[in-house]
Amino acid sequence: MDKVTEPIRVAQIMGKMMSGGVESMVMNYYRHINKSKVQFDFIIDEDSTIVPYDEIERLGGRVFKIPPYQKAIAYHKSLVKLFRENNYRIVHSHINTLSIFPLFAAKRAGVQTRIAHSHSTAGKGETMRNILKYTLRPLSKVFPTHYCACSEHAGRWLFGDKLYNQGAVIIVRNAIDLAKFRFDSQTREDVRKELNIKSKFALVHVGRFMAQKNHSFLIDIFEQIQKLDSNSVLFLVGEGELEQQTRNKVSQLGLDDHVRFLGVRNDVHRLLMGMDAFLLPSNYEGLGIVAVEAQATQLNVIASDMVPAEARISNSIEFISLNSSPKEWAEVILSYRLEKSKANPIIDYDYDIENASELLLGIYQATMKGT
Questions:
Q1: Residues 239 and 318 in one domain
Q2: Does residue 347 carry a pLDDT above 70?
Q3: Which region holds residue 45: left if phi is over 0, alpha if psi is between -120 and 50, else beta?
Q4: Residue 195, exposed/middle/buried by CB under 10 A (0-12, 13-18, 19+)?
């Protein structure tokens, strides 16, 4: 093939792939971007647990495993070698403050375009992680040549107000396939039958079991909901280091018959259609893509005030302060029992992956001009 027509091959720095929101976002872009013009290679930690190898390879991409950043010397050497051998012209890092490490390696390897992408912020409940974040944050602008963020909040947090106000931070929406998430009444009926929740008030949360997602507070909220409406049920989708701790709390509160752990699922869009409300009491979020997905299925969303306002793409989301009591949360959530769905709730088509993938392609192409 004529080199002029070969697609730009972008090294996507993913860290650990564990079916999280960032991984889903990058894969979603990869599925929809023009692959005759851009191809993705996924650089992942060797201890990644959920990697869609077959799909990536089918789409034309490659997966390279490297030591985790904690093995600093081996990590750096592996990246420099990988970048040089594959002659990457763009490295796009999605690991927030930790991007300093792969982008330093990219600079040493002579990579011309080095993109730092902010997907998150910091919040309570993660003391050691926050210490690392705040230590590395001042260095976040040292090695990138370009800056991206999933929201204004995430962009300002990592790169600072000055850089953001100068227009140097490009917002790349955590876009979704709106067609995939479009509400379907038959799917709702099927899901409720499969889960045996035909007459129940069904609540759902999707997210890794980690301090950021605030599962402990979520269970406190659901305990109060149960006291007010014993016909309610809570579904938890995901896995993570705090899963067993959450299971223990559920048992201690006598909620085993009302809380169901569904693990990692590849049919989240179907599950959302079968539910009555989506709960997201996060301690912090860069955006909260699951809230966007839930709204796209016409599901009512009740989120914490730590979820950025940019997650509002419809009129079916309500934000509540984390300072409010579990009982106050429960009362708000239960007010949606008779409010099943809203017709045509999508009001922000910037989150449509078909449009957003064209924008990302334009960003990559623009960075290559003059190189």
A1: yes
A2: no
A3: beta
A4: middle
Question: How far separated are the first and last CA of the chain, in Å rounded?
Answer: 21
110-124, 159-173, 321-335: the lowest-pLDDT one? 110-124
Quick check: 313 and 289 in contact, CB under 8 A?
Answer: no
Amino acid sitting at position 129: R
Q: Is 126 helix (H, G, I), strand (E, B) or coil?
A: coil
Instruction: Judge contact between 34 and 356, C-beta under 8 A.
Output: no
- Enter the tokens of residue 226: 């149960």
Inter-residue contact 348 to 246 (CB < 8 Å): no
- Mark whether 334 and 360 lie in a shared domain: no
Q: How many domains does the chain have?
A: 2
Provide the domain limits for residue 170: 3-175+352-368
Q: Give the residue among 308, 24, 20 at the shortest CA–CA distance from 171.
A: 308
- Whether 326 and 339 share a structural domain: yes
**Distance (Å, rounded) from C-alpha 350 to C-alpha 287?**
14
Q: In this structure, what CATH number is given to the domain that contains residue 296? A: 3.40.50.2000
Whether residues 170 and 195 share a domain: the answer is no
What pLDDT is recorded for position 20?
A: 78
Contacting residues for 303 by C-beta, under 8 A, at least 6 apart: 279, 280, 281, 282, 288, 291, 311, 317, 318, 319, 320
Q: Say if residue 55 is in the same domain as residue 143.
A: yes
pLDDT number for residue 346: 54
